[in-house]
Amino acid sequence: MMKRIAVLTTGGDAPGMNAAIRSVVRTAIYHNVEVLGVFHGWSGLINEELKLLDRRAVSGIINQGGTILRTTRCREFHTEEGKQRAFETIKRHAIDGMVVIGGNGSFAGAHEFFKRYNVRCIGVPASIDNDINGIDLTFGADTAVNTALSAIDNIRDTSTSMERIFVIEVMGRNTGYIALTVALAGGCEDIIIPERSYDLEAICQDIARGNARGKASWIIVVAEGAASATEIARKITDKTSLETRPVVLGHIQRGGRPTAYSRELALRLGYEAVIRLLAGEYDEAVGISGNKIVTVNLELAIQKKSLDVERIYKLIRILT
To answer: Which CATH fold topology does 142-254 show?
Structure first.
């Protein structure tokens, strides 16, 4: 029987993490289980940065971006010494299970921790990259997409007014999910993403042909893991002699108030994580698939997630 669990947020922050923390804490307390909040992710577990959380500790955070538990990327946890120190913290504080809120890298750490020390972990998928295999959507991704889309809508206005080409770089690390989604929803002319090779010469030819027909504005979305907006913009100017401006949206996509969908999903999954942990399930992630809550083994969840790239890319090209 579980009497005490820990909750931590690791890796990059994502809008909705606070809602998930709130859900985990209040669900556990409802079932008479204590919750220790671990600050600064795996680093906090190694350095024993823990605090007992009650209902009031998570009051008023549901609408806040970021994470009240803070988060870091911890290299030390990838060492045997780091994992050992984290496990010693688990034992000293009599922690029976853990809820790990994060993305692909966070789940990889949780899976290794389970294999090495049999620490019972449940993953809650929080990532702007939507990079967890076996589920439809991570919470935080919807907020990040809407933030990027709002910026692209604004840039479209000035692109049309000043008759310029813009190359907009969005986040996404090794996945083109954000770029693909905002390019379609924003009516953008082309994309450059890790999952698909691109031909800059062909892109420049399209721009030149469009310019000859009187099309004076153009927006290309670039995923950060595929290319640099600054470099692409420079090459387009060199090849077409048309003024091209790079825009790097950067970390504005991580922050801000979570959308209703990100909050709802975070709350549902935080609750489900605790229920599954109390039922004796572990080494898996909870997620949504076909609008139903499902579980995915962590070993499967951390594998590369495939996107329906060609179908969506074709649609982008047809509609522009």
So the answer is: Rossmann fold (3.40.50)
First to last CA, the chain: 58
* pLDDT-above-70 percentage for the chain: 100
Q: How confident is the model at residue 179 (pLDDT cuts 50, 70, 90)?
A: very high
In this prediction, residues 239-265 reach a mean pLDDT of 94
Catalytic residue among 13, 96, 129, 131: 129
Q: How many Å is the Cα radius of gyration of the chain?
A: 22
CB of 217 within 8 A of CB of 164?
A: yes
Read off the amino acid at residue 279: A
**What pLDDT digit, counting tens, does each position of 228-248 carry?**
999 999 999 999 999 999 999
Asked if residue 134 lies in contact with residue 286, where contact means CB atoms within 8 angstroms, the answer is no
Where exactly are the structural domains of the chain?
A: 4-140+258-301, 142-254
Q: Is residue 295 within 8 Å of residue 285, measured between CB atoms? A: yes
Distance CA 14, CA 138 (A): 9
Give the Cα separation of 228 and 167 in Å (integer).
Answer: 9
Confirm whether 129 is a catalytic residue. yes
Integer Cα distance of 106 and 126 in angstroms: 10
Same fold, 4-140+258-301 and 142-254: yes
Residues 6+ apart with CB under 8 A from 177: 129, 130, 131, 141, 307
Beta bridge partners of 98: 6, 121
For the stretch 100-159, pLDDT in tens is: 999 999 999 999 999 999 999 999 999 999 999 999 999 999 999 999 999 999 999 988
* Residue 260: alpha-carbon gap to chain centroid: 16
Contacts of 161 (CB under 8 A, 6+ apart): none
- Beta carbons of 252 and 150 less than 8 angstroms apart: no
Fold of 4-140+258-301: Rossmann fold (3.40.50)
Report how far apart, in Å, the C-alpha atoms of 142 and of each of 163, 167, 188, 267 are: 30, 22, 18, 15
d(CA 258, CA 15): 5
